[in-house]
Write a structure and sequence with these properties.
The protein is of the alpha/beta class. The protein is built from ten helices and eleven strands. An eight-stranded parallel barrel has the order 2-3-4-5-6-8-10-11, surrounded by ten helices. A two-stranded parallel ribbon has the order 7-9. α8 links the parallel β10 and β11. The chain is globular.
Length: 285
């Protein structure tokens, strides 16, 4: 069933588990993620991000995922992640995405507030929910070229500012910067768990989101969820799992598309199920 954040994240927050967002760019990844949700009776958030559109156009991803979501009996949020432009966010809403993240985190604070307040009002009129980012989650791909990116603490989310931000924008979920980074980690991440707790206390009604989840240790995930994280973003881990299955099949001289498709589905499904169990969302549909 197709739902938005409000039908899955508030329950997760109350019961101290997290719902995973798994970006899925083709039919095989989509089948793997939604198949995992069905197998474990878990709610799931699935979608794409603006940075991934060169690999799979927005309308193609939406059509495939929306079709599958409407035909399953577990809650599925169709999410447009890291929207970088107002125009693309509007396109996602018109296509039928039930939630979106408008990423204005690198803008000045007041501009971030203005843009999110405007888009949230529009999205709510569509029946969709909105995620924002306050502070800035780093990018592992920049670590070597920009040594200052190795210390992300200057961009961490401030709990007091988080409350002001949510009060002004009325966003439905907040991605916070607490030591994670996007992509594959080159350095061991150090999460500021005390900061997660402080933000949770500052905005107790707003679900918190952890970006840059791929590559964290299992205990990092468990502790972050205990501290108040209700949504975790995953892409790299399932992307690598699908690619590894294909590579191993080709090495075994199974080179036809019909050889590779189901292997990718099963690899993505297995990795997604692993994360769902870790996040505690199994059986919560």
């Amino acid at each position: 069933m197709l739902v938005n954040f409000n039908q899955v994240l508030h329950k997760a927050q109350r019961e101290q588990y997290a719902v995973g967002l798994f970006n899925a760019l083709n039919t095989e990844m989509s089948r793997g993620v939604i198949g995992a949700a069905q197998a474990l009776r878990s709610p799931v958030i699935v979608g794409t991000a603006e940075i991934l559109l060169p690999f799979s156009p927005l309308e193609c991803v939406c059509d495939a995922l929306k079709y599958m979501a409407e035909r399953t009996d577990v809650p599925v949020v169709l999410h447009y992640d890291h929207g970088l432009t107002f125009e693309k966010c509007m396109e996602a809403l018109k296509l039928g995405f039930t939630s979106l993240m408008y990423d204005c985190s690198t803008d000045p604070y007041e501009e971030n507030v203005r843009k999110l307040a405007e888009l949230t009002k529009i999205a709510h009129a569509f029946g969709a929910t909105v995620e924002a980012e306050l502070g800035h989650v780093g990018d592992n791909d920049r670590m070597e070229e920009d040594p200052s990116a190795q210390d992300p603490s200057a961009f961490y989310t401030d709990p007091v500012q988080a409350k002001e931000f949510v009060d002004k924008t009325h966003v439905d979920a907040l991605a916070i910067a607490v030591g994670t980074a996007h992509g594959a980690y080159r350095f061991t991440p150090k999460l500021d768990f005390d900061r997660i707790v402080a933000i949770r206390h500052a905005i107790p009604e707003t679900p918190l989101v952890l970006h840059g989840g791929s590559g964290l240790s299992d205990e990092d995930f468990r502790q972050a969820i205990r501290c108040g994280i209700a949504k975790v973003n995953i892409f790299t881990d399932i992307n690598v799992a699908g690619a590894k299955a294909i590579r191993e099949a080709v090495q075994a001289e199974k080179c036809a598309m019909t050889d590779l498709m189901n292997l990718q589905v099963e690899a993505v499904k297995a990795e997604t199920m692993k994360k769902m169990r870790l996040f505690g969302s199994e059986g919560k549909a």
